[in-house]
Automatic annotation (TrEMBL):
Keyword Transport: no
Domain of life: Eukaryota
Protein name: Pre-mRNA-splicing factor SYF1, putative
Biased composition (Basic and acidic residues): 109-118
Keyword hit for Protein transport: no
Source species of the chain: Medicago truncatula (Barrel medic)
Top-level taxonomy: Eukaryota, Viridiplantae, Streptophyta, Embryophyta, Tracheophyta
Region (Disordered): 98-125
InterPro entries, A to Z: HAT_Syf1_CNRKL1_C (IPR055430), Syf1-like (IPR045075), TPR-like_helical_dom_sf (IPR011990)
Amino acid sequence: MCLKYAELERSVGEIERSRGVYVFASKFAHPRSDQDFWNKWREFEVQRGNEDTFREMLRIKRSVSASYIQTHFILPMQKDQTDKAVTIERKVGLIRKRDENENNGEVDGDAKDKDNENRFGALKN
């Protein structure tokens, strides 16, 4: 759609507006999968632009390409972090179950009081 709009702007002589459409559309065009878009923008800059506008197009292309590469590196890391969080939650759940099972067993009231005194004593020092 953006290519058609850029072509329309170019046909009526609005070169800067056409260039603006290309810049806007570049955010959505992956350099590897949308070769048609990048080739048309390159042809446009060769025909209508100058060295600065051509370099700007190349800079934007590199920037967009880098953003797609970073996205692919970040996604697997997020998955690993999610897996680690699930593992930690499972371990915490197992520890809680273990503690509940220990507390449900018969415990001497005196032994329990002594244990609590030892804990509090350790905190006082």
